[in-house]
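User: I want to check something. If I give you two sequences, will you return the structure for each one separately, not as a complex?

Assistant: Yes, each is folded on its own. Here is the first sequence with its structure:
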Amino acid sequence: MNDTSTRPDAPDTVEKGESLWVGAWYRLRKNKMALAGGIFILLLAGLSFIGPFFLEGDYYTNTVLEDKLQSPGGKYPLGTDHLGRDQLGRIIKGGQISLMVGMVATLVSLTIGIGYGTVSGYFGGKVDSVMMRLVDILYSLPFVIFVILLMVFAKDLGDSIDEWFRARGSEFSISGQWNMLLLFVAIGAVEWLTMARIVRGQVMSLRRQEFIEACISLGLPTRRILFRHMVPNILGPVIVYTTLTIPAVMLLEAFLSFLGLGVQPPTPSWGLLIKDGADRMREAWWMLVFPGVLFATTLFSFNFVGDGLRDALDPKTSKD
């Protein structure tokens, strides 16, 4: 009787497998730029959402005219604006608004793009052809123009509603919340097209896999196949593109705020702070430099994280 354990070529131990996410995290840690970008984003998010609780005063409307346009240093580390408001506090609160716009609008984009692309890729045929032709048509439209027109309409509508309440002796105001909500929806509705195409390609590839064919043979409901088996297996590309969508959304919000169509004063956002700084850059350089540098660093950080995740989740890289 042969004993296989005595063979010289028999392995002593069985090598443990490595999951995709464990391997991706191991490779991501080697990417210093992506790691530094992720740490910066986490610190910035903590400062933006927790920092305002430790700030004194109201940095939305509080004005100290005798302290206006104070240069950085002393009582005001980053100086003051043209109304005497502390720039440090307004930059922190502006980061809170800009990050919130980036995350919520990206969530809207993900919801539309993943649902649309999954349905299109799974059913294929005429359904896919019609849905993708609609995406092609939407790609050809100047969406930024539509967003601008929508924000102008929303601003006028909000002001009209406020005037209606004021005429009846009420102090209720809807314009600020209305503009913010429309900003989230409008930007998210613009950015979903590329996500839909990415998801469609991934789903069409998975549609031919054996485990999906097995699910269909077992008679599982289509909804369960899509959202229990399809969507979890395309999270890699979705996460990568999400980290690249957030800075694009933040840049679009800053562009709209720079034009006066995004976040409305006195609520600060980085785009609005950059606009104020650009208007007064000769007399108060700090109003432009500090929010501009922080905004640019944040965009770079998100892009570094996105590039790092793309390399970490790349199947070719995982074989190294």
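And separately, the second sequence with its own structure:
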Amino acid sequence: MSERVPPFLLAQIGTNAVRFPSGAPMPSISDASVDPYAKSRLPKEVQVEGLLFWPQEKGTYPGLIVLHDWWGLNVQIKDLADRLACEGYTVLVPNLYGRQGGMVTANAEVAEALMARVKETDLLQDLVSCCDYLNTRDHVKRNIHGVVGFGMGASLAIRFACHRKLLRSAVAFYGKIITPLSLLKDLHCPLLYHHAGADESIGAEQVGQLQQAGKEYNKRVEIKTYEGVPHAFCNDMLPDVYHPQAAAAAWDGTVEFLQDCFKACR
């Protein structure tokens, strides 16, 4: 989508499936080493499952949590996570449908039903545990984290940025604006919102209200609008709405925004 050259190649990115408890103390490697039954014991807590992507060159990197759209943790999200890791981040992609069996779908009606069944309080707890998990990785800078979300995940990203005090950045791609907007008084990090100009579900008035709320509460809220493009314009798995030029511009804007937010932590 973009012609810019990232600092790492895909061949330099490691990938691993991860699993850790939600809302409970994070087990360490030493905990497992002294417990001979650690691998076989069934955990009491709900487990967060997901994928981890990271540059394999020795060093420590800021952590990013990537939140998928209502389709589930599909190939498109995995590809985006890979690309963000190429930009010099350790990227954790939790499966937001873990409590529903981790489903993935290409059917909009099924996706809508899956999204309707998730509970925001559960997901916020899972995301706090994602940050705790990142803090146990020796290649992640401790408490130097951000969140990037798409569609359903974008709305959750904004909500999490108003919940988690230690976040350094939040990026939302065409998600619903949180309500009430007074929640933005608790926004703890800069927010970049990518607005699809032809999005029928999120109009210019709502986006304007978001921007106004940012000014009212003295928060850094940046909005980039892509005129004439529909919702989900970055999703190359949806040829009817995919817009490569707008997607490339949004990607470059995201990379620049993240670089600015994390520049003091590199």
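Because they were folded independently, the notes below concern the second chain alone. The mean pLDDT is 93. Residues 250 and 256 are 10 Å apart (CA to CA).
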